[in-house]
Amino acid sequence: MTFEYHSQSKLVFGAGALSNLEALLRERRATSVLLVYSGDYVFDLGIRDHIVETVRSIGATLIENGDVVPNPRIELVRGLVAQAREHQVDVVLAVGGASAFDTAKAVGVGVPYAGDVWDLFDGTAEPTETLTVGVVSTIPGSGSEVSDCAVLQQGQDKRALENRILIPSFAIVDPEYSRTAPYRYQAAAVADLAVGFLEPYFTAKPHIEAADRLLEGGFKAALAAGRRFARDPQDSAVRAELHWLSATMFNHCWLATGSENDWTTHRVEHELGGEFDVIHGEGICAILPSIIRHVAERRPERYAQLAVRVFGADPYDLTPREAANVLADELEDFFKTLRLPVSLRQIGVPREAIGHIADQLTHAGETTVGNYSPLSRQDVVAVLERAY
């Protein structure tokens, strides 16, 4: 384990956390702030009014845009980049969840880049600098408030940019704000949160026991909090736990140091989201159990270990493949407890699209998907058929 860890992000967590915004903006010498968000909740919760007053109190100018959508689009980002340049924005402030944060991160790296911001997402160029980006979280789950990742869509092409330069300079998390989040979106985010502990767990490299135990503990905590949330979405203590788990989960720089993350499920889901505008967490629920059942036929070991340690599967009575299927069954039950879809049919993906999705993911069979047990085009088709 040879590594260097550094995080430039400040997390302000708890009731009244937004009161720290003025100090955070002053520390960063903000003179022109671009605010991005979506939804009336920004007004209903008083967040927008507080931001307007804070920006005014420090003598800065405010430009705002409330057009963020799920699966954020490049067209909005391009417009915001131009607007930010025109107004000499030095701080981008996002309110909401992953879609708002991804939009802000993309604008942050897009403004100082001389070319088209999409170049940074399709691999043509690497980001080298960013404007200051701050976020105010109103829904837990994605971990985007502290992550080095942004996901953006051009047409049906959905790409993820991962670079530590994208980590927000500060994140404000008041669990009270998530009380207005619609149940469907919050439940989908909870599912994504739980699965976020698994992508680095399913590693092809020799595992690190300490990392395994940390990820297992986080996964168990996410399952417990998710079930409590399903019983009472208004439970403020549960929402606080979910917000903290969200910030903890994506910080796998230290939860899973040294591992090669899998991300098979997220890569397949991104294709579904790009093609059919699927809610990310719902897409995850529809395909993950099938991925586990398929891969378990040839490489069940990591799945089996998780089933034994988290769900109590008996390693003496069950073969590794049988234990792996216990994991798939338990996850499917958890998603059902959250009242989320568990098949492609339920999220509106047509069966006749399966071949096309497989072609897109594997470049017509030229490449594979994921790291733990890479999926060929034939594998992708088999997984999606199983998920239907």
From TrEMBL:
Pfam families noted in UniProt: ADH_Fe_C, Fe-ADH
Database matches in SUPFAM superfamilies: Dehydroquinate synthase-like
The organism of origin for this protein: Bifidobacterium eulemuris
InterPro entries registered for this protein in UniProt: ADH_Fe/GldA, ADH_Fe_C, ADH_Fe_CS, BDH-like
Entry keyword Repressor: no
Protein name: BdhA NADH-dependent butanol dehydrogenase
A cellular component annotation (GO) from this entry: cytosol
Domain of life: Bacteria
Alcohol dehydrogenase iron-type/glycerol dehydrogenase GldA domain residues: 9-175
Keyword annotations: Oxidoreductase
GO terms, molecular function: alcohol dehydrogenase (NADP+) activity; butanol dehydrogenase (NAD+) activity; metal ion binding; methylglyoxal reductase (NADPH) (acetol producing) activity
PANTHER family: ALCOHOL DEHYDROGENASE YQHD (PTHR43633)
CDD domains (alphabetical): BDH
Fe-containing alcohol dehydrogenase-like C-terminal domain mapped to chain residues: 207-388
